[in-house]
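Ticket #4471: structure export looks truncated?
Reporter: QA, pipeline team
Priority: medium

Steps to reproduce: submit the single chain below to the structure queue and open the exported record.
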Amino acid sequence: MNVIIKFIAIWWLRSVRYRWSKLYRWLFERRYLKEPLPEAVSIEDIEACLKQVTWKLEGLLHLYDSISYPQTTWVRKKDDCDGFASLAAELLYRLNSNHRPVLITTVVKPISKSHTVCAFNNLRGNLWYFDNARLKSEQYKNYNEIALKVSQRGKNLICWDVRNPYTFELIEFHN
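Actual output as written to the record:
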């Protein structure tokens, strides 16, 4: 059974999740694209904006989980970790494109403890990340360190990836 769960989790993260998110966005979230996002002039402003959003589980047992447009998350003022990460990435990019935000998703057992965060360059040579509305400003050297920290929510890390938050282009994948 563990082998089957691992196979499905890897298949979902590598092949289906981001295609599904693009389709879901196109079908159900296009209308939000013209909505304005808040102006942030600092990392602290971004954290304050994220604190105005409420965490809410998306999808029945994550069965149709998708990554929302940042505008969708902002207008609805509620989303799961993917929505927080997407909104943080967009606000960081608008603040300074040199932050180079990315989405890091860790798939762990139990699957319900899987998580997505927004990691970014803190402009001092280290990486920080937003875990929902909380800024994690420890000095991380690479995405692997962040993925290992985030995966502690579960018992066993199955796989993790790093994606461009705009195109969902794969940057790294590990299992």
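Status: closed, not a bug. The export was complete when the record was re-opened. Leaving a note from the reviewer for reference: The mean pLDDT is 93.
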